[in-house]
């Protein structure tokens, strides 16, 4: 794709750059301070869940069935919360644990357990690494993807291998080719619905191929972080196939470990976290986790299930969230289309849910765009973070997190982003002429 | 020490045993079902903290200073809670993290980090273990001690070495001798105040010797679980020396990692957990933990600090707990003194705080006593659990957890325990005559 700047002669380009620089100077003078760095709901959006804080009071019954939520015990989570967890994850309640406020921490712990102890009788991943000096343990990372996922495997010393995202999810031809012959590839990170940051939902074919593909490693694990399973922007949400059902049918159910939480449903960082897996994998994880945990915060579990007792109640609640998020996503779409649609400088995704839009500018532009936005007072997610080790090889990708600012602030921030992309694209074109 | 049964001739002994067996049969017929297995507060005791559930409501200000507790961020814990954590642990607030509801899980995670990554530049403990096939990594475990501590190191494959408790804390002569020459001994588990289960508080001399002793392992760590730091039964509580001050003076502050939580202050399993360490150790732990945690549940932190804003408020609250616990501990003391005081069959501790009484019967008696109590409907902590691997070499120790039953139930349970100890002691004496 040629940008409009690449079609200009050097004089026209110089004039355009000068004019864009004037606009940048004017933007700097406005002294903006806007944050589009992380996928945080805005304070007013969070306020939707404030009624939950009234649910438990001094006189409340603190029992869930026969479980006293105000005392020790019930390691696996309270029955009502496990029921909800099963509905979130698409597996039987008995195959879930409801734990503390962070599903990321559960992911961290379970991958750490595979590393230290192995899974389903295979040697620990750390032992595999020690025995194969020239063949480190590897993980597949769909890119652009979620930096904190990549950080968990990186911290363990697992080598993160990027795999391209397509419109249907990660590139399955490439994945099937890789895992078929290399037993050092032990897993893949997935955000299967409204992926972070592309917003893409894996197609049924992708889900099926992931669940049924032939893996050289018998202990290959799909880390299925269904973080946005109910986070639709529109009444008609994307449909995600149930990977547990497909895996169960194919006899590969030990392969799937699924996660979700209420962090972006009730209070970010103060929700309840869910994990679901096959009976065997759940039992081995519970065995090790029990060494350090008597029980998670069951009062918060009780508060949640009384506020949101069923998946239908959750869906109703999510509609209120969508009212905040929809205008923000639509603002992103509109501003980018208006500002860059005819420039040939950029492509971006059009999510129908989740928290992010993935944006790609010309090769070699993203870091410069990020720096220029910062100079103009707009903070983006660290550019490159959507790739393992922060290394986007073509330096094109930017994650847009539109949820936190007001629509007015977001609009101003996108003006800045559009301007930065234009100037950097023009400068790149000029540099290519030199 | 001779028991009264050892002083009897065989005829007298046979008669005594027959009479005790009649009493056991009568007790069985009563069909008791009492639980003294774990250190759980009773439901009425937990109710003391119910007003905390009214603290946060839909209209509350959810900020702690500038921190929005209802959104992501503030990994290290909210400022007010860190201040309280510093007061609990005896170190500056900046040297603390306030995390989720379980301090045990923090202990699990930090020992896991030392195992996988090492500490302060030393090789990972797992690497040490791999490099010294004949010299496994070891941990010192004061006995009788806390089974869940031993379980954490056992789960990692660390070898637990028992060290005797004295009236002043663990046997420091033995500990100094062991750690001076053996660099495979990487740490010690301590419950320094009202130890689980002896109720002993470490003397100032013990604290000083632990903090200043010469360790062959440069990465020796004291896991200082100050679980009962404010859990006094009487106005005049035991005094525990501040190990951070002593270590700081001695230049050994990297050696100390301290823990506490509000689990037995507010709601068991739904409190907030604290960790304190030197700046270097805290930073390295935070670095790895951050790979899996954005932030802990700050709403629960806020709820806690608004309910218990200062250490003085905590102490006032603890007086209410003491009103429940004191009569239970006094019941244990009275029943044991009345029932066994003149028999020579048993010794036990006389704690002024905490949750447990440690009881020792004749050699070879404890497992049989535990089984006999179970037959009579009284469940004790699994006998042997106070020793690493559940192996009490002399089979004498029983942990008494008097907090959960009512005083009446407890009284009945202790009658059963006394009866069981008498019968087993008499049978042991008879078996020795054979």
UniProtKB/TrEMBL annotation, chains A, B:
Domain of life: Bacteria
A Gene Ontology molecular function term of the record: L-aspartate:2-oxoglutarate aminotransferase activity
Record's protein name: Aminotransferase class I/II-fold pyridoxal phosphate-dependent enzyme
Keyword set includes Transferase: yes
Species whose genome carries this gene: Collinsella acetigenes
Database matches in InterPro entries: AspAT_Ic, PyrdxlP-dep_Trfase, PyrdxlP-dep_Trfase_major, PyrdxlP-dep_Trfase_small
A UniProt-annotated Pfam family: Asp_aminotransf
Keywords per UniProt: Aminotransferase, Transferase
């Amino acid at each position: 794709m040629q940008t409009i700047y690449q079609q200009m002669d050097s004089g026209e380009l110089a004039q355009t750059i000068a004019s864009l620089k004037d606009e940048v100077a004017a933007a700097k003078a406005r002294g903006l301070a806007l944050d589009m760095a992380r996928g945080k709901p805005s304070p007013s959006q969070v306020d939707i869940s404030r009624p939950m804080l009234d649910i438990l009071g001094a006189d409340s019954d603190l029992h869930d069935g026969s479980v006293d939520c105000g005392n020790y015990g019930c390691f696996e989570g309270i029955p009502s919360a496990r029921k909800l967890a099963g509905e979130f994850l698409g597996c039987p309640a008995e195959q879930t644990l409801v734990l503390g406020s962070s599903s990321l921490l559960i992911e961290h712990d379970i991958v750490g357990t595979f590393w230290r102890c192995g899974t389903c009788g295979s040697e620990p991943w750390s032992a595999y690494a020690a025995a194969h000096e020239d063949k480190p343990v590897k993980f597949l990372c769909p890119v652009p993807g979620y930096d904190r996922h990549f950080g968990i495997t990186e911290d363990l010393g697992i080598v993160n291998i990027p795999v391209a995202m397509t419109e249907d999810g990660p590139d399955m031809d490439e994945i099937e080719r890789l895992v078929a012959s290399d037993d050092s590839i032990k897993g893949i990170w997935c955000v299967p619905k409204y992926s972070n940051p592309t917003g893409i939902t894996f197609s049924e074919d992708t889900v099926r191929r992931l669940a049924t593909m032939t893996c050289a490693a018998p202990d290959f694990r799909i880390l299925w972080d269904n973080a946005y399973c109910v986070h639709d922007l529109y009444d008609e949400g994307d449909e995600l196939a149930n990977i547990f059902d497909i895996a169960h049918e194919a006899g590969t159910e030990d392969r799937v470990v699924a996660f979700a939480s209420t962090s972006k449903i009730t209070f970010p960082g103060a929700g309840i976290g869910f994990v679901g897996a096959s009976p065997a994998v759940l039992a081995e994880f519970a065995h090790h986790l029990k060494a350090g945990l008597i029980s998670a915060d069951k009062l918060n579990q009780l508060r949640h299930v009384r506020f949101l007792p069923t998946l239908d109640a959750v869906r109703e609640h999510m509609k209120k969230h969508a009212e905040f998020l929809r205008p923000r996503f639509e603002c992103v779409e509109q501003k980018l289309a208006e500002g860059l649609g005819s420039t040939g400088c950029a492509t971006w995704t059009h999510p129908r849910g989740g928290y992010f839009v993935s944006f790609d500018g010309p090769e070699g532009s993203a870091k410069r765009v990020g720096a220029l936005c910062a100079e103009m007072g707009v903070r983006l997610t660290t550019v490159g973070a959507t790739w393992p080790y922060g290394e986007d090889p073509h330096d094109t990708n930017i994650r847009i997190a539109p949820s936190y600012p007001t629509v007015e602030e977001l609009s101003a921030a996108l003006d800045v982003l559009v301007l930065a992309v234009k100037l950097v694209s023009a400068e790149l074109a000029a540099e290519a002429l030199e």
